[in-house]
């Protein structure tokens, strides 16, 4: 166990996936009825995988900590899902999507996986349309597209600003059909607390019923981890409050390598932090950068006056505004990739040009788009020489049709009308490109344990392009895992049901009970949130948008001390054998306190800047990321050795045979 064999098929890149599907082993329909699969997480990756495998005939058990599979964090995705359909006729293709994704990830992703993702992207749209997902359509009835950061084409399919919700409802409907057929057993309000290995293979999980507190054993022939990312490590993030790393971390501690933990995405268009008592952040979709222009005042005195409330942004003349992304990156403008836009916003705010009270915000302005759309609407409506008031009214109607729910959400949170005054935005933690290491079949280094969607590392490298998360989750769940898992399960057609009354299940359950007892018996004085907030501040200040060797080492030491204090002084109220949300949080934060140290160690080990990993020591004179392709063109895969500081580094060398590796430029 633990050998890094990516199992990438031989042959030309464009033929690898087809060749692989033709050569792998299959399980016939009669035998699928005798095979059980556990899926942990019911977001787009887990939900689509569970529905598809059940449709194929496998017996599936799904687990989620929410009260319904449709509550997964995938529901929060706003902007869209990518696919190389080229409906706009603007030059898109499977290769172009593949190239943009590898380049956007700063040449730190596996070529074969990304090309497969681009290939199956076109199937995703057909699948979801067939499910009734109400994608936006243009005047001729065809599906509409918009553009996202890091690309020069329009390939993002969307449903207003609620694309994730609509896609998840499609997957949930497919799941529901299988639940009704008895092919899926849905365990809601259950949390996976350990992975069970029998003879070195993943054969089940230990789960806690979050309503009754009961510890349960569940067996299967294979386990799929589709539990999302670990961004709540930073406490303040755009993730839902319950998002955690527990399922993936338990698999890691059982032998699954954890890859690229330091590759975390900072999203540039988040509503800024408003105070010390805030518990989460809210995202404004990247789709807004299609029409919104990002700027700060050109003069420091104007920025100061705005912060003090003496000047309004609408008072500033056009020549007094610095549209810094358009100035620095003319080819892509406001649609540069997320890591580039985030660092540029931080640079302007650090220089004193921030526009909210804390000085950590820039403007996202729709005035020009409103007037442009208004003039276009007036012309197509046959109006001659309409006044500005009429043009503005028409333009606001167009913008409302495209982004209305996002504008409404912003106004409810900030109490400002974004049709009349620019939005304020600032970067925030949004996605994690790191995750469990998987091979081409999406199997981890534990036989029979798979990872799908954001829980694995495979497709996004050091930076994810917008609208690619939904694409990867659905590709893994609908079109990759249901094929590849059969290759492994073909050896289990005579195995029979996996018993749970075995020493392996006993040992795993005892470990879980001991950990719960340890958490409950700590008679400290600090709440779980006290430690989570402290960890979040360490992570944001020393492992956030900019990192350096000194502070990363400090972060490792501080997190180790914080973890020691947590186990001695945390106070978990309530009881273990019943509903207890403090106990749930305590278990999740305990895992974050281990992952945080590994995260910092991974960032310290990678002596280069790439994508979302920006080391201050490695940058160009213009302040851009400076990669070291000679020494760091590899995936960092960490093996658990009993303590984060003792983790062993394995490297998967990345080979690019179809793309020229060069410095990213969006100028």
Automatic annotation (TrEMBL):
Membrane topology designation: Peripheral membrane protein
Segment forming the signal sequence: none
Residue ranges occupied by any Fumarate reductase/succinate dehydrogenase flavoprotein-like C-terminal domain in the UniProt entry: 532-666
Catalytic residues identified in the record: 338
GO molecular function terms listed in the Swiss-Prot or TrEMBL record: electron transfer activity; flavin adenine dinucleotide binding; succinate dehydrogenase (quinone) activity
Name of the top EC class for this enzyme: oxidoreductase
Keywords: Cell membrane, Coiled coil, Electron transport, FAD, Flavoprotein, Membrane, Oxidoreductase, Transport
Highest taxon listed in the record's lineage: Bacteria
GO BP terms in the entry: anaerobic respiration
Protein localization: Cell membrane
Family: Belongs to the FAD-dependent oxidoreductase 2 family. FRD/SDH subfamily.
Protein name, entry field: succinate dehydrogenase
Native source organism of the sequence: Croceitalea dokdonensis DOKDO 023
